[in-house]
UniProtKB/TrEMBL annotation:
Belongs to the ATP-dependent DNA ligase family. This is DNA ligase (ATP). Its EC number is 6.5.1.1. The keyword Lipid metabolism does not apply. InterPro entries: ATP-dep_DNA_ligase, DNA_ligase_ATP-dep_C, DNA_ligase_ATP-dep_cent, LigD_ligase_dom, NA-bd_OB-fold. GO terms for molecular function: ATP binding; DNA ligase (ATP) activity. It is an enzyme of class 6 (ligase). It comes from the Bacteria. It catalyses: ATP + (deoxyribonucleotide)n-3'-hydroxyl + 5'-phospho-(deoxyribonucleotide)m = (deoxyribonucleotide)n+m + AMP + diphosphate. Residues 138-262 form the ATP-dependent DNA ligase family profile domain. Pfam families: DNA_ligase_A_C, DNA_ligase_A_M. Residues 1-38 are annotated as: Disordered.
Length: 351
C-alpha cells in the first residue's frame, strides 16, 4: 500500500517520497490583487454519498473520514469567518482555527474542511469535540479543535469550484503545509486500493474513508462525486420521543428516531444503548420540555413519550433491516440545531 505523503493520523507506514512542484512563496496580505471573480458569501458544500463498498480505479482519490463538524473558512485579508454546514457563523466558537487562518499568508480564500478533536492516537473523537464546545447548545469556545482541510474553493480572486479536484488539491497543498501540527492541517490524499485502505482503516479504529473523483469540479449536494464508506455506519437522525422505563438509568429505555423524506419524517427504529445515566437524564429533561400528544411519526406502544422534532442525534448502526429500521443502533451524541441539514435523507439509503 502506498500513499502520497505521511497522514496526520497513524494510517499507513512511510513509503518513498513523491515528486512535487516547489512550494510557492508566501503571499503578502498587504499586496492587493485583482479580483477576477468576486468572493462568494457562502458556497453550499459538496456532500458525500454513503456507499457500502469502496470504488476502484485510477479516477478515485482517497482520504481518511473525519468525525466532526463540517466548516467553511472564509479569509478576506485579516477578516476570517467560519461558517457551518447549515450557514451559521461560528467564528467565535473556533478561535484557534480563526487565528491559524490569519497566519496562512493568503489574501483571500475559502477552505472546506472538518473541525475535529483528535485522541492520543490521532483519531477524531466526536464526543470530545462536543465536550470542547460545551455540549449541545453550549457557549464554550473550542481551543482543542483543529481543522482538517480537504478542499480549496476560492483563492485570491479566483473561483476554483469549476476546476477539477486534482487542481484544487495541488493549490491547497501549496497553501497548507503537509504534516503541520497547527490548528489547520491538511487532510492528505492516500494512494491505495480502496478496499484494502478501508480494511486497514477499520482495523486501526478509524470511522472510514472518503472517495472522491479526482477530475470533477466542486458540485454542491450529494452528486456521487464524493462517497463515504464507513467501518461502522453513522448518521444523524431526529429524536421524535422516547420509551420511558422505571428500571433504566435516567428513565429512558430507548430513543425513538426518524429520518426525513421531503417534508415528512420516517420512523427508523430505536436506540437503547450508547448513553449513560447522566446522558439519559439530560436527554429526558430536554425531551420532556418538548412533549407533544401529536407524534411526528405514527407509532403505538407502551410507555411512549412523544417529542416535537427538535433534537438531532448522531447514531451508529450496523445497517438496515428489510422494513427500513436501523440495525443495532447506538447513541453517540447530539448534533447542534445549526446542523439540521445533516438529518439523514431516506432517499439516500442503500436498498
Amino acid at each position: 500500500m502506498r500513499r502520497a505523503s505521511k497522514p496526520t493520523a497513524p494510517l499507513l507506514t512511510p513509503s518513498e517520497p513523491v515528486i512535487r512542484s516547489p512550494r510557492m512563496r508566501r503571499r503578502d496580505p498587504r499586496q492587493p490583487d485583482l479580483p477576477f471573480d468576486p468572493m462568494p458569501q457562502r458556497i453550499e458544500p459538496c456532500l458525500a454519498l454513503l456507499k457500502p463498498n469502496a470504488p476502484a480505479g485510477p479516477d478515485w482519490l482517497f482520504e481518511i473520514k473525519w468525525d466532526g463538524y463540517r466548516l467553511a473558512v472564509h479569509i478576506d485579508r485579516q477578516d476570517v469567518r467560519i461558517i457551518t454546514r447549515g450557514g451559521h457563523d461560528w467564528t467565535h466558537r473556533f478561535p484557534s482555527i480563526a487565528a491559524a487562518a490569519r497566519q496562512l499568508g493568503v489574501h483571500a480564500a475559502i477552505l472546506d474542511g472538518e473541525a475535529v478533536v483528535l485522541d492520543t492516537s490521532g483519531r477524531s473523537d466526536f464526543g470530545a469535540l462536543q465536550t470542547s464546545l460545551g455540549g449541545r447548545g453550549g457557549k464554550r469556545t473550542s481551543t482543542e479543535s483543529i481543522l482538517m482541510v480537504f478542499d480549496l474553493l476560492y483563492l485570491d480572486g479566483h473561483d476554483l469550484t469549476g476546476s477539477e479536484l486534482s487542481v484544487r488539491r495541488h493549490l491547497l497543498e501549496d497553501l497548507v503545509v503537509p504534516r503541520s501540527d497547527g490548528a489547520i492541517r491538511l487532510s492528505e490524499e492516500v494512494e491505495a486500493d480502496g478496499a484494502q485502505l478501508l480494511k486497514h482503516a477499520c482495523q486501526i479504529g478509524l470511522e472510514g474513508i472518503i472517495a472522491k473523483r479526482r477530475h470533477q469540479p466542486y458540485r454542491t449536494g450529494r452528486t456521487g462525486d464524493w462517497l463515504k464508506i464507513k467501518c461502522v455506519q453513522s448518521e444523524s437522525f431526529m429524536i421524535v420521543g422516547y420509551q420511558a422505563s422505571v428500571s433504566a438509568r435516567g428513565g429512558i429505555g430507548s430513543l425513538l428516531l426518524a429520518g426525513k423524506r421531503g417534508h415528512d419524517w420516517v420512523y427508523v427504529g430505536e436506540a437503547g444503548t450508547g448513553f449513560n445515566g447522566k446522558d439519559a437524564a439530560s436527554l429526558r429533561r430536554a425531551l420532556d420540555t418538548l412533549k407533544t400528544k401529536t407524534p411526528a411519526v405514527p407509532l403505538k406502544g407502551k410507555n411512549l413519550i412523544f417529542a416535537q422534532p427538535t433534537l438531532i442525534a448522531e447514531i451508529e448502526f450496523r445497517g438496515w433491516t428489510r422494513d427500513g429500521s436501523l440495525r443495532h443502533a447506538s447513541y453517540k451524541g447530539l448534533r447542534e440545531v445549526q446542523d439540521n441539514a445533516a438529518v439523514f435523507d431516506m432517499n439516500d439509503r442503500e436498498v
